Amino acid sequence: MLDNPENIYKPSAEFIQNAHVGPDKYKEMYTVSVEDPETFWGEHGKRLDWIEPYTKVKNTCFDFGKVSIKWFEDGVLNVAANCVDRHLATRGDQTAIIFEPDDPNAEAQHITYKELHEKVCRMANVLLSQGVMRGDRVVIYLPMIPEAAYAMLACARIGAVHSIVFAGFSPDALANRINDCGAKLVITADTAPRGGRVTALKSNTDAALLHCSDKVRCLVVKHTGDQTTWIDGRDVDVKALMETAAPDCPPRPMGAEDPLFILYTSGSTGKPKGVVHTSGGYLVYAAMTQEYTFDYHDGDVFWCSADVGWVTGHSYIVYGPLANGATTLMFEGVPTYPDAGRFWAVCEKHKVNQFYTAPTAIRALMGQGPEWVEKYDLSSLKLLGTVGEPINPEAWNWYNELVGKGKLPIVDTWWQTETGGHMITPIPGAVPAKPGSATLPFFGVKPVILDAEKGTEIEGNPAEGVLAIADSWPGQMRTVWGDHERFEATYFQQYKGYYFSGDGCRRDEDGYFWITGRVDDVINVSGHRMGTAEVESALVAHADVAEAAVVGFPHDIKGQGIYCYVTLMNGIEPTDELKKDLEKWVRTEIGPIAKPDHIQWAPGLPKTRSGKIMRRILRKIAENDYGALGDTSTLADPSVVDDLIENRMNK
Ligand code: WTA
Q1: What is the pLDDT of residue 6?
Q2: Most exposed among 209, 374, 437, 548, judged by the fewest C-beta atoms under 10 Å?
């Protein structure tokens, strides 16, 4: 029995009829997938083309101290050949990528699989000519342009490992990532237009490379043609070289467990971790989730509005869709440029069938009025999706009524950089939606709710605790680049025998999962993951700052905003000017996405006698929730709290 009938949204009969997976098939497939993963994945692994087929399917161990994850380990394949070459015979002239530029008046590009093949080969040959070899790391710092996809696939083609750094990150953040993964080369663009504004990517890269080995080369995509500085011998015009490079480049046979990419993501402590994904399992999982979660059918136009700098862009703009021979849309711009109708204009223009975005984008558009949606013909849409954070009921209803006209399934997909693909999500033809719930697990995923203190599984429904996964799935990250111990400590130490997600979660009477947000010191700002520790270390790097503590607080549009408590050095005056200066400082240290929303001067921070900052209290003060501060008796100096509250109220 469903516990809340008026808030359940079932797919239409028509949708179910055409769906890959209907209600009965979901249960049947799910049961096999978790009871007999070898058979299930052994079968589904065949969706890829293997140069040497695998004989072993699953070889995984979650025991702390011995964590090891291998899928299809003796199989040999090439990821780029799976995303491009194998489609040439059947769909060479089909559009692989639709590129919609930032400027709505600039012409969209339709890149066929044949053209994609040629571009990827040429780019691969350029990389080879620059001395990039199998296993070498290549950092990609590009805007949302087709060259980003060419670069990813070119790396995959020759067995190099890419690491994309979101184009909104600062030179410092870029330098740290180049150094951490020991990249041989960075690929960037001259400048990047976005929402009508221009980011100077090449000059950011120049600034970053000052902190890197002078052996690192810089390939520059001349995208806008804007003038940039040029260092002969280091900087290379990649488009010019592609023109003269050979249009063919044999794909290199790679082991299923060879790394495909590293993607840095924030955790609760220390610097961002390089999440490592490998070739076979990741691609099987990205492709399978793209097909089943979105009920993608041959010929559909699929649009994921994320950026390739995040995992969502990796799995659902490039790898998943292209492995399935889909038409995938790449959008360079932002939802509000030139106006709040842009998403819907693009859906109409390219007859998009599945649209996947973040709740923060929906919330930003909601405030602009329904007319921006109503103007456009959205009849091509068959399904909507969200990712990145829990979706609030207002945003869900708006998305459902205005965009979906009350008729389309909405898939709320819970997953992480670490998981490679969707973990908890409705299978749209089978699982009715409840607004705000990611519903039920994807095939092969065994989510459990653990008691946060005891680490034991809470059986039965309803249940509330922390979310962990009891067994491996093919898309799981394999390690932290260069630090397997950190991988084990982060995900397998606290709750032995499980992968710990870092999220809190509730399971309702019907077994539906409701993510309640992070239980660690990670905040989710506009769907971007950020470690509060990163912002704190940026703040304390400023000469006037003695100490800083950063917490998240509820923000209408961003989901969470960044709230900073700052203690200044002795003798430094707290002025508005200094606040502005600190905001700017954090922007340049990390990037615009980390800009503080609030800075509160804090003469002292609430600490335990052992010196640990009590963030729980700081969170409550930031939320203006003084009644629920909880136990403050363990504080070294409880009067600090009164001062902070007083300051907060006077703001
Ligand atoms: C959050 C993005 C609720 C969650 C793919 C997770 C979500 C973190 C959802 C991962 C969702 C992601 N509902 N929360 N549908 N999707 N999250 O690594 O806290 O950037 O741990 O991966 O985002 O963020 P990441």
Answers
A1: 66
A2: 374
Q: What pLDDT was estimated at residue 1?
A: 38
Decide: 202 and 228 in contact? Cβ < 8 Å: yes
Distance (Å, whole) CA 484 – CA 481: 7
Tell me which residue has its CA closest to atom 2 in ligand 1. 416
Residue with tokens 């400082």: 585
Whole-model pTM?
Answer: 0.95
Nearest atom in ligand 1 to 418's CA: 18
Cβ contacts of 444 within 8 Å, gap of 6 or more: 33, 34, 37, 40, 41, 473, 474
Kindly state the tokens that stand for 570.
């002795």
Pair of tokens at residue 522? 């990670």
Q: ipTM of this predicted complex? A: 1.00
Residues paired with residue 356 on neighbouring β-strands, in sequence order: 304, 385
CB 120 within 8 A of CB 154: yes
Determine which residue's CA is closest to atom 22 belonging to ligand 1. Answer: 416
What is the CA angle 88-89-94, rounded to 5? 55
Query: Which residues lie below 8 Å from residue 104, measured CB to CB, with a gap of 6+?
Result: 333, 338, 342, 345
Strand partners, 80: none
Helix (H/G/I), strand (E/B), else coil: 399: helix
pLDDT at 650: 64
334 assigned binding-site residue: no
Distance from C-alpha of 318 to C-alpha of 154, rounded to nearest angstrom: 12
Helix axes 532-540, 576-589, angle to 10 degrees: 120
Report the chain's C-alpha Rg in angstroms. 24
Q: Measured in angstroms, how far is the CA atom of residue 462 from the centroid of ligand 1?
A: 22
Residue count of the chain, please give it: 651
Contact 169, 157 (CB under 8 A): no
In this structure, are residues 248 and 114 in contact, taking their beta carbons and an 8 Å threshold?
A: no
Q: What tokens does 644 get?
A: 């902070």
389 close to ligand 1 (CB < 6 Angstrom): yes
Residue pair 360/559 in contact by the 8 Å Cβ criterion: yes
The annotation status of 518 as a binding-site residue, yes or no, is yes
311 in contact with ligand 1, CB cutoff 6 A:
yes
Ligand 1 atom showing the smallest separation from residue 310 Cα: 20
Q: Quote the tokens at residue 389.
A: 């954070």
Q: How far is the CA of 62 from the centre of ligand 1 (A)?
A: 22
Q: Is 177 annotated as a binding residue?
A: no
Determine the Cα angle at 344 with ends 343 and 346, to 5°.
70
Which atom of ligand 1 is nearest to 312's Cα?
5
Residue nearest to atom 13 of ligand 1 (CA): 390
Q: Is 469 in the pocket of ligand 1 (CB under 6 A)?
A: no
Q: How many CB atoms lie within 10 A of CB 642?
A: 11
DSSP state of 119: H
Helix (H, G, I), strand (E, B) or coil at 528: strand
In whole angstroms, give the CA distance from residue 318 to residue 306: 11
Q: Which portions of the chain are predicted below pLDDT 70? A: 1-6, 650-651
Residue 185 alpha carbon to ligand 1 centre in Å:
30
615 is in an annotated binding site: no
- Residue 213's identity, in one-letter code, is S
Say how many Å lie between the CA of residue 414 and the centre of ligand 1: 6
d(CA 604, CA 641): 9
Q: What are the pLDDT digits (tens) for 160-173?
A: 999 999 999 999 99
Q: What pLDDT, on the 0 to 100 scale, is given for residue 2?
A: 45
- The pLDDT score that the predictor gives to residue 651 is 59
Structure tokens at 14: 């028509």
CA distance 359 to 414: 12
